[in-house]
Amino acid sequence: KVLVIGANGQIGSELVLALRKKHGADHVIASDINAPVDAIRNGGPFEIANVLDKNSLQHIFELYRPTQVYLLAAILSAVGEQKPKLAWDLNMNGLIHVLDLAVEFEVKKVFWPSSIAVFGPHSPKQNTPQYCVMDPNTVYGFSKLAGERWCEYYHAKYGLDVRSIRYPGLISWKTNPGGGTTDYAVHIFHEALQSGTYQSFLSANTALPMMYMDDAIRATLSLMDAPDECITIRSSYNLGGISFTPEALAAEIKKQIPEFTLTYADNDPRQAIADSWPQSIDDTYAKTDWDWKLEYDIERLTSEMLKNLKNSLVL
Ligand code: VAH
Known about the structure:
- By secondary structure, the protein is of the alpha/beta class.
- Helix content is 43%, strand content 16%.
- Bound molecules: (3R)-3-hydroxy-L-norvaline (VAH).
């Protein structure tokens, strides 16, 4: 049995779909604090639970005795700055509850997402390496940095096989992102199709590491399928994707929607968050340890997003 906690989220919902395909729908238990979102509703078992309520989680572990657990529940960077104490509490204690339950119930493998948000203003901006100065200045960023330390600790101390990826900004169409700084790269596609114009909250030349969701899901399953002895990183693997600016993404959209226009808001609080992050990532360890290869460049990502949103949006 595979348990996905935070199944309603942008990543969680896509992991549920991919894991149902891989293991069979009946073997995947989706869980979140609210009822299932459209993307995963009626496709398999679903349990309501609150990651801050360890008993509600324990009940699910007792009921299903999962052999794998994916913990995707988190508060992201922008919302985390509006609710710093809740973000720390949920991102930290949610993880520790799950790590403890995983040890107690002898779960074979645990996945937990980190982020390029663990890097900060003094980290190298280009080709940011796996190991370097990390001074994240968002609650989300340092909660993920601390979470990486906890994951490495539970592996070293209890032998728990917990694995993690520092995701770049993720772009997808099935489920909306929830309160991140990279969300502009999703909203822009909806607006390009619905109104023909979008006002970016990040400035024209703000380059960030991004990735199409299909690549991120494939990376996650590749990491989780890799033999234990191949895993040399027990904090969290850098994963780079493609780096682009809002201006470059708009230019790609204009190739398919020539009349699309992009404007820019100024002094949005998310600009300072983006400016504290790397512009590109070195993911050599992912390539070496579990043969990572990217498949979606900005052109293919743009085509996929516009094609799929055209079919799913009521325009
Ligand atoms: C966020 N989408 O914007 C997340 C992610 C690298 C960005 O961690 O907060």
